[in-house]
Amino acid sequence: MNTSFSVDKIAIIGLGYVGLPLAVEFGKVLPTVGFDINAHRIAELRSGNDHTLEVSPEELSQASLLTFESDIEQIKSANFYIVTVPTPIDEHRQPDLTPLIKASETLGRVVKKNDIVVFESTVYPGATEEVCVPVIERISGLKFNQDFFAGYSPERINPGDKEHRVTTIKKVTSGSTPEVAQFVNQVYGRIITAGTYLASSIKVAEAAKVIENTQRDLNIALINELAVIFNRLGIDTEEVLLAAGTKWNFLPFRPGLVGGHCIGVDPYYLTHKAQAVGYHPEVILAGRRINDGMAKYVVSQLVKAMIRRNIQVSASRVLVLGLTFKENCPDIRNTKVVDIIAELKEYGMVPDVFDPWVDAQEAKAEYGLELVKQPAQHSYDAVIVAVAHGQFKQLGSEGIRSFGKAEHLVYDLKYLLPKEGSDLRL
């Protein structure tokens, strides 16, 4: 085995929210090629723009050693590959490894002797070596840990967060042999200013990633359940959390919708693997059921409040403020706001969705939604503040209420408004 590894060129496979920031940072210090099968995405990046807003035109221009390609032939000169494709779940809430398998097939056509492939996509423990590596072996004809090597370094990107960036978040690394692990760690150390943590194995690194968001999911599920209880007791949840938060070790979680490409997805990767080895994960799945049911709960509370106020439910108009899975970013992947919209329609209500951060064509393509360009004043029977965008905060209670009819309700899911500024809160 070759124990003296070197990096001639890095290839990043997948240029989304995870891959692009990584490619930009490596492109400042090492020859790097960003690869994506989406030719439109490559053209956009070559023009110096990123529609995800994760990387500014200035940052793109600073990566002087970075090029962008959609032609597989152009990445064969690399010898250190990093895979950052998405790992979603299907309609049955089972892991969908299709993008990862396709990326592995691509690697099988370009990997050469002594090359290293590192996966960053969230998976269950064992997926890298049990699913991805055999695909590469089959297509390349090379033998794992003899001809080519692997590593796993879980992504920790937080979309829309300009403080915690790829370089300022400690990076967990791992490799398929001790020598490879050390080398992978050193390569990431070239760009990660926050430092690295070398895990003892690829499986440990995979497991560490998948429990990060599982832990957050369960904490939010607890607070969501408490919110339902406090609602029945006639107690304001936010006031309870503020009081409890005066204790030094109380965790500052808040109730709400749990969507996005991580927290609402990753636990299903772990539960899938747990069930495959004969264990039924009670607590994790209970948390998922609570969080997946919050949209139904929210709309049922709104309907009850409308009936109490003699506001007709059927054919009522409801303005939903926000579509993204979190505030101040354009990411609509796995957003649970669409569950609220679907539930409103179940009651015969007519929802309008307004989100200044979202590309209208993307919303149409992904969810079949026609966004309103600007909500009309005095037009809605109810307004749901679903996402805490800065623009909505600037509107304040008065601005948000101006969208409502003379008799209307405001449901603030995000504690964006003062208590007296809304009619309903989680």
What is the N-to-C succession of helices and strands? EHEHHEEHEHEEHEHHHHHEHEHEHEE
Count of distinct strands:
13
Low-confidence stretches: none
Structural category = alpha/beta
Number of helices: 14
Name the shape in a single word: elongated
- Spatial order of the strands in the main sheet? 3-2-1-4-5-6
Range of strand content: 5-15%
The rounded distance between the terminal residues' Cα atoms is: 58 Å
Percentage of helical residues?
A: 25-40%
**The biggest beta sheet, please?**
6 strands, parallel
Q: What's the pLDDT, averaged over the residues?
A: 95
Radius of gyration: 23 Å
Q: What features would you highlight for this structure?
A:
alpha/beta, 14 helices, six-stranded parallel beta sheet, 39% helix, 426 residues, five-stranded parallel beta sheet
Overview of this structure, please?
The protein is α/β, with parallel strands linked by helices. Helix content is 39%, strand content 13%. It has 14 helices and 13 strands. Helix 4 runs parallel beside helix 5, helix 7 packs across helix 9 and helix 7 packs across helix 10. The longest helix has 32 residues.
